[in-house]
């Protein structure tokens, strides 16, 4: 059975409310067994795949209802909407919403929506028709999603992983890690990750600057497995997501605080550039749940 859905977030009607997003908690259900990661041949040398392309086209005019502060060409804005949904904005005001669904939505319509299949709180089959690119992290034929989309100054690609099914088995390629290249940054959204990464998958992801990490330790990968994934990706900054209570979040942070600095933000948004990334890897906790 799927994760218990929450009520829709109230639409944001003024910029002042953006920094006060409140997401209702999700019910915790028992998790199934973890599937083994698929076997893979020896990978090629890990590629430095960032930064992505920068478009020469002019930025589009945006509605007056949502006009955030302008970003420098090397910056990206990341806003935690809740659960596993983030709004990522580029210098040309291209907007990407991760794990876009019917329950937890960003305050503005995204240009690009990524989704994953594990639960209905990670996808919708009825996305707003105004979304330019709807990227499912799975395919109905069981093959990898294989997305590689460029739009203005944003590049989004996907790396397939497996998920558990409700019978305790494995659905191949049911989840995608989406790598979003914005400004000079590579941002990896791990989605509903259920297993540690193979060397081939790590090579396909490449070097990343920011990792959006599910930290519940039950529906997704267990705590020790997620710590292994974080260590393998070697990103300077990690932002927790997909936790069901402060207890769930604190349990994960307690596990990692011996090896990583932990910082708590007062606001759900942060503006980042490669030059402002921490010298020592750390976790940045944005408000939301």
Automatic annotation (TrEMBL):
The lineage of its organism: Bacteria, Pseudomonadati, Pseudomonadota, Alphaproteobacteria, Hyphomicrobiales. Gene3D superfamilies: Ribonuclease Z/Hydroxyacylglutathione hydrolase-like. This is MBL fold metallo-hydrolase. It holds the Pfam family Lactamase_B_3. It comes from Rhodoplanes tepidamans (Rhodoplanes cryptolactis). It comes from the Bacteria.
